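Tokens help. One example:
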Amino acid sequence: MADVTLNIAGRAYQVACRAGEEDNLLAAARLVDGKCREALAGLGTLSESRQFLFASLLLADQLLEKPGGQAAAEESDVAPRVEQLAERLESLAATLEEAGNEA
């Protein structure tokens, strides 16, 4: 296992991944960071969990807009990876939301 620091929406997150997957994870983080910033620019002030939610939706929309739409996205090798990433983001958003409610 390798540890990677991801910088998303101005915050650093330490994430573990399998050896050799670091570059893919960093590239995915750059995409998510870009979409978080896009959501923030378009919608104004958002909580971290909302930024991640809208970033996920923007990324999913981007995938669905490609030729073939949803069917192509579902059949693609990318779909399982996107689903795993979405699950991680949902988990992270839930953790952030819980931490914010405790404060």
Observations:
- The first strand starts at residue 2 and ends at 8.
- Residues 78-102 form the longest helix (25 residues).
- The beta strands are 2-8, 11-17.
